[in-house]
């Protein structure tokens, strides 16, 4: 196929710097007995910083008008997400890396609509988003040759040009906030010290599943996080019960509370499908192996930190 006559040309746009050096993490991941629990004062300051950045990115709205795309383009997006999730599992990457990949993907195509691109270019861009997310979140840099698309054989230079296009389109602001950033905070707020066993796994599973249901640029990460934690704790709450749970948390107004309940309802449906899915239909390369539930361990619960924008 004629790659040279594509939006990734001219070739002189190729970054001359070592791409591995651009995003290499400068700090080592902390290891804690329970990484989902932190001090209350640290949480409050951290969350205020996140919300400030989130408001800057999303504006005052907690939920934007849903992005409309054709059914065929939705299928393409889902195929890209499936590839991201399967590649994450095969390489044993963090769940956050996969979620961040989808965030980059949705941010990119919110600026350059899906319908303007050939299918192969969309797949290449999804690969570039995954590679960039891995450079942001993984402790070691994986060679580009490790990322395989069955239908296409992209060389390193094509992938690097796609990465550069994503970087320039997103204005090099790669420190996207995700619901994982809020996980420990809402677990502490809603559970205190009585955290149910396996709660982090259930919350992470909902985070991952919701990427297939919504465009991530349409919903604030804090709203998704609060709803997911509530569903993971109790998926049978009424609207009044949800409002009672979130009322002590002075982060939002009435509009945000409505959006949390709307997101809670959506995740209720997701949770029902997860519970009803027989283990026999889960692919062996899925994130949970032969189990339906994700095995969410210390490595996948991100240590609190504020990424550079």
TrEMBL record:
Record-annotated Cyclin-like domain positions: 82-168
CDD domains: CYCLIN_AtCycD-like_rpt2
Regions that span the bilayer: none
Pfam families: Cyclin_N
Record keywords: Cell cycle, Cell division, Cyclin
GO biological process, one term: cell division
Stretches assigned to the Cyclin C-terminal domain: 177-294
UniProt family annotation: Belongs to the cyclin family.
Subunit structure: Interacts with the CDC2 protein kinase to form a serine/threonine kinase holoenzyme complex also known as maturation promoting factor (MPF). The cyclin subunit imparts substrate specificity to the complex.
Protein name: B-like cyclin
Species annotation: Quercus rubra (Northern red oak)
